[in-house]
Amino acid sequence: MNQLQSMRVFVKVADLGSFVGAAGALDLSTAVVTRHVADLEARLGTRLLNRTTRRLSLTESGATYLERVRHILADLEGVEQMVVARNHEPVGTLRIVAPVVFGLHSLAPVVQSYAARYPDVVPDVTLADRHVDLVEEGFDVGILVARHMRSASIVTRRLTTGYMTVCATPAYLAQHGTPTRPEDLLRHSCLSRPAEQGGGEERVFKGPDREVRVRPTNAIAANNAEMLRQFTLLGMGVAILPSYLIGRDLTAGRLVRLLDGYTLPPIEITIAYPSRLHLPAKVRTFIDHLVEHFQPESASARDSRSAAQLRATVEASGSDDPTAREMTDHALESGGTTRRVTRAPRTRMAVSSQF
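Given the sequence above, the corresponding structure tokens read:
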């Protein structure tokens, strides 16, 4: 019979002073309770209980055994409760792996807000531009480009989509001309990954009328997207970089977006974790936090809220301007937007530093 169960039965018999009472409390038959105690005595080679027709009493060995068994069962219950708590309450070290540039430019705010929400979790972040085996290397969560995942036992969940942008400095373009078609890249100094990391691969541009395939030749290679950005800012050539990485450079005019009429294939960014079975709370809550951070509310919901705020402002001001009220009513009726100029969606999510 199960030794731990026999120990629990013995404690209950000793506490109640009755096999029948213990059987009722444990929802077992009296015969099974008697068997558990007898098995313990046989295992120990000593009598634990003195039995008479009227009462039960502990032997000296039984009293010593009972005291120690209580501690053992209490310790076991404490361990079980601790494990259950770790699975249901976010606690412990959370090992995260992500590409280098993604981590440097996009991960820190997520980790900071998560740590503030769950102070009992200690994030342990590793940045790596290589193939990662989550199971072998003991990571809880990976934020990875699909081709950088390795392991048949991992579970993946789409997080967002990243986009690549062709760019160069105004000074470079003034000196060398502005490419207007993908084929023009063949006449420019291109900055990309080394050949062994995919640099020099054929690029597939989707244009307004057709697909265009070109294979730019590297003038300079680097194994890190941030280094390629620095080379680009120094006017050393044309690069294809993640939009999130160069967003501020484009806004400030340090870099110019090229080939606006063409798009490169998007990059799917995924969350990966070892298993759905008994997923620890620290992993589950971090995944939810990532999704919340990188998948903002829909544009319609955002615009509806903005229009409602506009109406509240107009009403609060006491304005009788019919034009303002008409604009506000039109915004609410049309889904909330008062803007007449449409812009290309901006990507909030970082992409892998490999491209």
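Confidence is low (pLDDT under 50) at residues 297-314, 321-355. Try to locate this feature in the token string yourself.
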